[in-house]
Amino acid sequence: MKTFGIGIMGCGNISETYLTLIPRFAGLEVRALADLNPEAARQRGEAFGVAPMSPEEMLGREDVDIVINLTVPDAHFAVSSAILAAGKHVYSEKPFALTLEQAETLRSIATERGLVVCSAPDTFLGGALQQARELIDDGRIGRPTSGTAHVMGRGMEHWHPNPDFFFKKGGGPMLDLGPYYITALVHLLGPVRRVTAISGAARQERIITSQPRAGERVRVETPTTIHAIMQFASDAIVTIGASWDVFAHGHHNIELYGTEGSLFLPDPNWFDGALALTDQSGEREAVPAWDHPLGVPNWQRPSGPDLANHRAAGLADMARAIVEGRSARCDIALATHVVDIMTAILHAGDTGEMVTLTTTCERPAALRPEDARALLKQN
Ligand SMILES: NC(=O)c1ccc[n+]([C@@H]2O[C@H](COP(=O)([O-])OP(=O)(O)OC[C@H]3O[C@@H](n4cnc5c(N)ncnc54)[C@H](O)[C@@H]3O)[C@@H](O)[C@H]2O)c1
């Protein structure tokens, strides 16, 4: 297969993960790094042996085919527009757009220019969520009729070195962590028809406790607690609670209830995790993990067991999709629908309305173990 030249725009926190994981996938070679802050690009370049350069220089490089947009959410639209204008494909971190209008604009520019835009998250391609997909498609819980999702925690100011963007427009738990949950749910259940929500914020100001800015204050400009209800096109009803105002809770990440049983799913921010299933008896049984290469733990944490982190799987699938002339699993139709759902939830939270969505999408194709194996370099 052709090797795609990759450029990375934005050399902050998450760029290290991409630079570590991309070399494990076939058909990808990182050839350029750029950042508004030249020092950030220089440091990553030195650590990973990739040429640092200015954003303009990277966009002019003939040997860069896909640019990964790892800038902050507020810059995603402008940066992705510039990448497309330079004639290159885009793989963006989430949320790839902050409004439906931005999403549709990128989609029409890409279509016009024959370019592909894809977006994180790609964690739904992991072993756990793909196994959940197989269980649902095999009818193990019957027809899914309802469920719950909870992504709640204390916030971001205790660990991220520059946590400001999490509390600004484009941040907040719905746009920051919602993509993992909502993308996973659309992948499992199909598109959403309408949403409603109530939202708020426990604090108007957050105090940074991480280094190097401990003690600085960040003004909160987005809801930090959102409780929403989504009705899927299939009629399934799922409640989602997203908050950065919660110190502890006892909810499961995702639970899906069907006409024949229930399915308990792990954190969709990772590629692995425990699944459990019940039938109509209600007796919960652990599901042994299947042999899926994107469910294999490979990522050390400061404490606790290793986790599976195969970020860049979506990028590898995108490259292969371009070669094969098919839709990528993380393509812009899915990402646009997810942005539509999240922004409609935020709008509903502001206004109290029930919002009927204007977009829809196909469920992305399943990524079975053999499909995943084909994305990885064969050693
Ligand atoms: N940090 C994580 O663990 C994590 C995980 C998954 C996804 N993400 C997503 O990845 C994105 C980046 O997150 P991060 O934590 O790396 O942020 P960060 O603040 O650490 O890094 C962002 C970098 O982008 C650069 N930048 C900003 N605007 C730019 C522009 N217009 N052109 C070029 N460079 C620009 C900044 O100088 C900075 O170095 C966010 O959308 C976030 O939601 C982060």
Indicate the topology:
Blueprint: E1 4-9, H1 15-21, E2 28-34, H2 38-48, E3 52-53, H3 55-59, E4 66-69, H4 73-85, E5 89-92, H5 100-113, E6 117-119, H6 127-137, E7 144-152, H7 172-176, H8 178-189, E8 192-200, E9 205-207, E10 217-219, E11 225-232, E12 237-243, E13 254-258, E14 262-265, E15 275-278, E16 285-287, H9 313-324, H10 332-351, E17 354-356, H11 369-375
Parallel strand pairs: 1-2, 1-4, 2-3, 4-5, 5-6, 7-12
Antiparallel strand pairs: 7-13, 8-11, 8-17, 9-10, 11-12, 13-14, 14-15, 15-16
Helix pairs in contact: 4-5, 5-10, 8-10
CATH superfamily membership of the largest domain, which one?
Answer: Dihydrodipicolinate Reductase, domain 2
Give start-end ranges of low-pLDDT stretches. Answer: none
Number of helices: 11
Q: What count of structural domains? A: 2
Pairing-aware structural class of the strands and helices? alpha/beta
**What is the CATH class designation of the largest domain?**
Alpha Beta
Q: Helix coverage percent of residues?
A: 25-40%
Strand content: 15-25%
Spatial strand order of the main sheet: 16-15-14-13-7-12-11-8-17
Rounded to the nearest angstrom, the radius of gyration is: 20 Å
Query: How many angstroms does the end-to-end distance come to?
Result: 16 Å
Question: Per CATH, what is the topology of the largest domain?
Answer: Dihydrodipicolinate Reductase, domain 2
- Number of beta-strand segments: 17
Average pLDDT for all residues: 97
- Major sheet characteristics: 9 strands, mixed
The SSE string, one letter per element, is: EHEHEHEHEHEHEHHEEEEEEEEEHHEH
Quickly give the CATH architecture of the largest domain: 2-Layer Sandwich
Protein name: Gfo/Idh/MocA family oxidoreductase
Organism: Arsenicitalea aurantiaca
GO molecular function, one term: nucleotide binding
Keywords: Oxidoreductase
